[in-house]
Amino acid sequence: MAQTTLSVRMDEDVKKQFDAFCTAVGMNTSVAVNLFAKAVLREKRIPFEISTEPDPFYSESNMRRFRRSMEQLEKGEVVIKTMEELERMADE
Q1: 33, part of any domain
Q2: What is the pTM of this model?
Q3: What distance in Å separates the CA atoms of residue 72 and residue 92, rounded to the nearest whole number?
């Protein structure tokens, strides 16, 4: 099979991290990109979700809860329990 070259522009830091990941899992960047291309062709789709929807974790309702929790923490209104204490409470 004839080989060809694909040039891709990306952030330098992203490339360094990607190269390091590929090395850590025993492959090089070229193998990883080829695996991605073959997965796209096999599945006829990008093999992971791409969405314009925001992460639900950062919804306004969650952020309100987070801000309230931080206010409680700053005011000292937080009760701290160990896991053992929580388990005993659950058993009662």
Answers
A1: no
A2: 0.54
A3: 27
